[in-house]
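Q: Fold this one first, please.
A: Sequence and structure below.
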Amino acid sequence: SYVLRKMDYVLSMSQSMTKQLKKQNVKKIKEIGNFIDEESIDNERVDNKHKSSGNKRFVFVGSLTLRKKVDLIIKSVFELKSKGVLIYVDIVGDGELRKDLEQTVQKLDLCVLIKFHGHHPKPYSILQKADFFILPSLAEGVSRASLEALFFGVPCILRNVDANSE
């Protein structure tokens, strides 16, 4: 915290982060709540008139790690399917759990409902096809993917942790 107090300014990405910095007596804080470059991704917009009113499509964008809890998405799809409710999920990202998650999807016979896309540096077309963005992370600073989803008008379902409520 000594080093932070010596900085000209400290950038914060959320109100909760700003509060933490203030507790450490950091005075020169600039809060940037929306740090995505909207101008640069605005040209990535696609026509969403093709969205169906039938089965809903969800999208997860992020790293495939324990903290992100992608397994909860898979379990939810399985439970809904067992009750006769079909939803589709696009999983965009890569990580240490990808192989295990893909095997679980295959074992539960969900390959038609859940598609893995791997890492995409610009996942905007997949994101915009979704009815909802979902992020069940146990911890999250400020999710860039959720900010991008909101920018493209995709409602977000987020766990109430860290700055997600902002």
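Q: Good. Now the second chain.
A: Here it is, same layout.
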Amino acid sequence: GRPDLEPMQIKALLMNGAETEIYINPATQPGVLAPISRIGAGELRVDRAATLGALAWDQASGAAALSFGAVEADRQTVVARTLTLHNLGNTAKQFQIASSFRYANDRDSAAVSVQAPSVVNVPANGSADVSISLVINPTRLHPWALNGGSQGGNGAALSVPEYDGFITLVAGNETLSVPWHVLPRKS
């Protein structure tokens, strides 16, 4: 165990080390990835989490996920969150930062783009903050079809307007994953 960690940090470790390749239903829909709104960070992998020497979380919420929420956009809109990385080790670490979309059609639409630095240095037993921004182009968003009526509880309908993916942080053989998602609507 890691008695030196706070409960929020333990949750972050578990989420940062989760398995992200989770499918909706491998038997009936082989190869169809489940959206972030259904899986969060993914399936927990305690063995991975136990070996992580760093953790990452949203500075404002304390969650190991970046929720950009529901965004009304009438023009190009930028929403930002601060990701805090904490190094649990006695030596400094340099993390390479990459972002990805859960689905190729969301990436290819160019409605949402992710901006983040490519590298962050985290001191030994210290922390560093990283700004992660989404740029939303409302003219390229998927059509909004959600309503509070008969389809209000239809989780599958949420998949069309939602944009989601992962921020991946790599230092040597250590990989942290942080899910991100946004529900933008042209206003």
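Q: Anything worth noting on the second one?
A: The chain has a mean pLDDT of 92.
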